[in-house]
Amino acid sequence: MMKQKLRWGIMGCAQIATGSVMPAIVESESGVIQGIASRGLEKSSAVAAEFGVKNAYGSYEELLSDEEVDAVYIPLPNHLHREWVIRAAEAGKHVLCEKPIALNSSEAAEMVDACNKAGVHLAEAYMYRHHPRISEVQALIASGEIGDLRSIRGTFTYNDAGDTTNIRFRSDWGGGSLYDIGCYPLTAARLLYGVEPEAVTVHAIFSPEHDNVDMMASGLVEFPGGLSLIFDCGMWAYNRQFLEITGTEGRIEIPMPFNARYEDADFSVHTADGTRLVKATGANPYVNQVDNFAAAVFEGSPLYKAEDAISNMILLETCLRSAKERVRFTL
Known about the structure:
The structure is a single chain. By secondary structure, this protein is of the alpha/beta class. It folds into two domains: 6-128, NAD(P)-binding Rossmann-like Domain (Rossmann fold), CATH 3.40.50.720; 130-287 and 313-330, Dihydrodipicolinate Reductase, domain 2. The protein has helices at 15-27, 41-51, 60-65, 81-90, 105-118, 132-143, 177-193, 285-299, 308-325; strands spanning 6-11, 31-37, 55-57, 71-74, 94-98, 122-125, 149-159, 199-207, 213-222, 228-234, 236-247, 250-254, 267-271, 274-278, 329-330. The strands form two sheets. The chain has a nine-stranded mixed β-sheet with strand order 14-13-12-11-7-10-9-8-15. Strands 3-2-1-4-5-6 form a six-stranded parallel β-sheet, with helices on both faces. α5 packs antiparallel against α9 (308-325) and α7 crosses α9. It is globular and about 60 Å long. Residues 6-124 form the Gfo/Idh/MocA-like oxidoreductase N-terminal domain. InterPro entries: Gfo/Idh/MocA-like_OxRdtase_N, Gfo/Idh/MocA_domain, GFO_IDH_MocA-like_dom, NAD(P)-bd_dom_sf. Belongs to the Gfo/Idh/MocA family. GO terms for molecular function: nucleotide binding; oxidoreductase activity.
């Protein structure tokens, strides 16, 4: 059991913070919530009282000036990530930043550089990558049971189009389906193939009712050796989540690939021998994310290097550019 506790400051009261990450810190072996900040003291005080947190701050600057805060979690809108990651690094705080880490790869590179110079750990909050099922799927692929990899197919959609005030429908804030949920199958393919993509072609629906963000997108991502990801994502379609990994001798079907916890973590393997259900190890990926972050800080052993976030943004921004210009782009 990890004895040392990482003292967290929460920068904002977004639902992802109060509903998932803060409960995960409380449940974790490695962390404790030192304080929570908002743009107004009334809101942060209410959330602090709810979680039994002793410190509430009426500004983000106050949180960063607290010497008892070791690390900050940033769930702010995408367009604010760059500023506050850099300011946190300059204040000597380790940073867990919600995905996508930035609006583009140039911002991401600047953020990574700032954290490296300050000697603090930076991680992008793709919680699904910390679920034990990921390593179990990787081990199954490595075993050769489904043969050589050939293709990956991924989808993630939901319908929230009626809420036109949603921050995800702000173009200048980094809104749109690619940045919100398309990033999941895109990062999963990079992770499972273990190589970087070579080209992308993406088609999308851009809605004037929603500040012209991409409400739906589908595309082809080309990887070396003829490997591919075919994906679709959207905020204007029926709820769907699926990931299929196909090889020369079989395929893996994961019905809930991006936010599974315990009872919904199982997946199927189909080969010439038949179909079998794999009882994956259940877990709260948010708790694992918190504990893995602390291990990176205390032991210097990150599962994912900060530079991985730059590669994620290169792929994401190129997909969005392809959708806007209706052109295939190489990376």
